[in-house]
Specification:
This protein is an alpha/beta fold. Helix content is 39%, strand content 22%. Strand 1, helix 2 and strand 2 form a beta-alpha-beta unit. The termini are far apart.
């Protein structure tokens, strides 16, 4: 009898042990490790969202790694990355490849409106720039526009806006957006091209310092000047407004999809706003008067 009881107890203990092991292996959005690939241009907002997520879910560890967005997309397809940040629109061929290799429907998780901006030294007499100047300058042998790299999100987006391939454009390169800002005064006839998120944080000391070195040129389009204030980003009036989005190859609700959901909720969107960018998902504030 005693042996029978022991066998029953051992049987139930083995079931509990197996179920615990399976539970440990099951998908979880609130614990585990993950790496996000993001272009340098929007690294700041990505890090801010990652920090917010880790504060809310202390058992998670998210590492943000800088990588050119085209290379990040390739790594996602090869399952070397679980989640990436993108800004340019994928071509129909790229979407087809994504859906075939990842075996998921292409559903970009949009979370912020950023912008590509054109900058000159603070003492430059230039006050604005037109779409025509940009288009012509990108075909000039003078290479008057300085980008942060040949595969950068900024170059990709400008090329897409001009309906060109990056290889068809002529430009100069200074690696790193911060380096462009700091070295631009050495090239008085050049125009820097960077992402707004490089220095968009309103009360950040480093951002304030970088902003003090240059001025952002309003862009003239169809006879009107547009700057990068929140209204122009929200309405996408500024010609080089771009929408940032997450792309994942995770098919279950694990940490990547948990992070995406968090970034698109009100809490995540508040972080986007604190970064000086325009939240993509707008939440109406209701005040009850008594």
């Amino acid at each position: 009898m005693k042996n029978s009881v022991k066998l029953v107890i051992l049987f139930f203990l083995s079931i509990i042990a197996v179920s615990c092991k399976n539970e440990d292996k099951s998908p979880s959005y609130h614990k585990g490790e993950m790496t996000i690939f993001t272009d340098e241009s929007f690294k700041s907002v990505t890090e801010a969202l990652a920090d917010g997520y880790m504060i809310n879910y202390p058992e998670t560890k998210i590492k943000v790694v800088t990588k050119k967005e085209d290379l990040g997309f390739i790594d996602l397809l090869k399952d070397k990355a679980r989640i990436i940040v993108m800004s340019r629109n994928l071509s129909p061929e790229e979407i087809k490849t994504y859906e075939e290799q990842v075996d998921l429907k292409f559903l970009p998780a949009r979370f912020a409106a950023d912008a590509v901006v054109f900058i000159v030294p603070k003492d430059s007499p230039k006050e604005s720039i037109s779409m025509e100047e940009i288009a012509q300058g990108m075909q000039s042998d003078n290479k008057e526009f300085i980008f942060d790299g040949a595969n950068s999100s900024n170059l990709n987006f400008v090329a897409q806006k001009l309906k060109k391939q990056p290889k068809e454009l002529k430009f100069s390169v200074i690696p790193g957006s911060k380096n462009i800002i700091e070295e631009l005064s050495k090239y008085p006839n050049k125009i820097g091209v960077i992402g707004l998120n490089t220095f968009s944080r309103p009360y950040d000391k480093e951002s304030e310092e970088l902003r003090s070195m240059v001025k952002i040129l309003p862009v003239e389009s169809k006879g009107k000047l547009y700057n990068t204030d929140s209204e122009n980003l929200r309405k996408m009036n500024y010609p080089f407004t771009r929408v940032l989005y997450f792309l994942t190859n995770e098919g279950n609700f694990n940490i990547a999809n948990g992070f995406i959901r968090y970034s698109c909720t009100q809490l995540g969107q508040m972080i986007v706003q604190k970064e000086g960018l325009q939240p993509y998902n707008l939440y109406r504030r209701e005040v009850q008067m008594r």
